[in-house]
């Protein structure tokens, strides 16, 4: 089966460079307008719709015309604990220039924001979602789409490619576009398409 993963539309905190994590921020007016003007490309034919329960993801699904998504907490953004609501500069100012290094930024899935969730824990729950989504192909439930977050797309890409995460995010992964995976029956992901474009609703 195929699973299309997409990130929610823009929020005011995105524009300000503030970390959202589990903070339930809605889309900005510009973000709502942007997503309402778009649709999935016709090459995708999802029969199942999933979304993070967070407001910005639910609003994105509705704006795209993806009705009645199944809400799954495993699609939520990584919990950034005490750093949520802060910009990177504010984190460094409050917690020291080595704040990210001390949190394990160079140790891949061991990175844990202060008081938050480790990247490894995020990967584990995303992998669990993929396993359960893959069960649908055994029941002829068809392809799926999931509206999620940047961290979830990164996790899915990592699980599909083995990216060690000890270097910056690969430039070839554009989280503003659509990541399409193929899922084996056991949920093992592989890249089917990178950076698939949305289409204009007016087209």
What this model shows, in words?
There is one protein chain. The protein is of the alpha/beta class and 203 residues long. The chain contains 7 helices and 8 strands, in the order βααββαβαααβαβββ. α3 (55-63) links the parallel β3 and β4. The two termini are 28 Å apart.
Short description:
With 203 residues, the protein is α/β, with parallel strands linked by helices.
Q: How would the global form be characterised? A: globular
Structural class of the helix and strand makeup? alpha/beta
Tally the beta strands: 8
Strand ordering within the main sheet: 4-3-5-1-6-7
Topology of helices and strands:
Blueprint: E1 2-7, H1 12-16, H2 29-36, E2 38-39, E3 48-51, H3 55-63, E4 70-71, H4 88-95, H5 99-102, H6 119-138, E5 144-148, H7 150-161, E6 178-183, E7 189-196, E8 199-200
Parallel strand pairs: 1-5, 3-4, 3-5
Antiparallel strand pairs: 1-6, 2-8, 6-7
